Amino acid sequence: MFYRVLGLMSGTSLDGLDLAYCYFDIDGDKCKYDIICADTIAYSPQMKDFILACEHCDAQGLSYADYRLGEYFGTKAREFIEVNKLEVDFIASHGQTIFHQPSKGFTTQIGNISALASKARHTVVGDFRAMDVALGGQGAPLVPIGDKLLFSSYANCLNLGGFSNISFDKDNERIAFDICPTNMVLNYIASMMGLPYDKDGEMARQGRVDELFLNAFNSLPLYNSNERQSLGKEWVNENIFPLINNYPIEPKDLMATYLDHITTQLAKNICGDTLLTGGGAKNKFLVESLRSKTTYNIIIPDELTIDYKEALIFAFLGVRRMRGEINCLKSVTKASQDSCSGVVAYWNRE
User: Fold this and answer.
1) Series of mean pLDDT values for 10-residue runs along the chain (350 residues)
2) In the chain, N or C terminus with fewer CB closer than 10 Å?
3) In whole angstroms, what is the distance from residue 126 CA to residue 249 CA?
């Protein structure tokens, strides 16, 4: 079976909306894929503020934001489809995570799929995390089934986005977990210098690592626990930002120290040749630091895969949802069972 899917991804770093138009050719257990074209629609400062404000608004305000962001996603998807003259079977959207507290039994991604479908004028699959959380799982990470089925030639798949996460096979099961906050914190530090991000890691390269501060990061209980958890903004707000905001250190030294913390934690969890994707793969100094701390090969793929692997895999999750196949693994999320997750808003093409 052949599928033409537009995958939408908006991550915690709030860089923008990723759109990846993908082909999937599925024959039994085999799946071939291709990213035909892709783009990122950068969020304006106003849009970033609108999304960030959702964490503190009331129920009515959150409902309003859910619909408005869905319309925005749908409008951008429709423009992308029309400009590139694409034939699309359906759209798969991750949504924008506002709250993620699986320990309390809930997760919230806004970007209402009905509003999205109405503007894009296509069927939309979304809300991929809720079923897993309802089954007692972490609702994350969701990408590993795509790693397993689309990128099986690599021992590890490591993605560096707002958070870093890794997946690999162990004892015939896919294992995956978040390692540590990554671009979310690096971008926060860059903002102290009036920059959106640390291009190529040059700020970190110029800084000096503060060993006491580095030890404070590396000593957080998360890193010494056998039970790895799904990380969200709430964990960063409680554990990382208080350290950063209460320690007297120059921003470039803070950047160097936190980047060293990231690569220390990544290297501890790498167990073979590793495919590296996500925005962090473009941070040259981070990649240099990581390679200096491991003997395994760190493979950086083509730019489309670096930038749009998550959008590709959410498109793939959508395909599996529409086929009624498992797209969320209990071995990864610790749910009571595997599931076919996602909600569908069907568009009637009159």
Assistant:
1) 97 88 92 96 94 94 97 98 98 94 91 98 97 93 92 94 92 91 95 94 97 96 82 90 92 97 97 94 97 97 94 97 96 94 90
2) C
3) 42
The residue type at 74: G
Phi, psi of 198 (to 5 degrees): -95, 95
Tokens matching residue 315: 């498109």
How large is the angle between the packed helices 251-269 and 211-218, nearest 10 degrees?
Answer: 40
What span, in angstroms and rounded, lies between the C-alpha atoms of 53 and 64? Answer: 12
The residues facing 107 across adjacent strands are 100
Q: Is 152 exposed, middle or buried (0-12, 13-18, 19+ CB in 10 A)?
A: exposed
Under 8 Å between Cβ of 5 and 92: yes
In sequence order, the 6+-apart residues with CB closer than 8 A to the CB of 345 are 113, 114, 116, 117, 123, 124, 125, 126
> What is the Cβ-side half-sphere exposure of residue 240, based on CA atoms within 13 angstroms?
25
Residue 122: left if φ>0, alpha if ψ -120 to 50, beta else—which one? Answer: beta
Q: What is the pTM of this model?
A: 0.86
First to last CA, the chain: 25
- What distance in Å separates the CA atoms of residue 12 and residue 230, rounded to the nearest whole number? 13
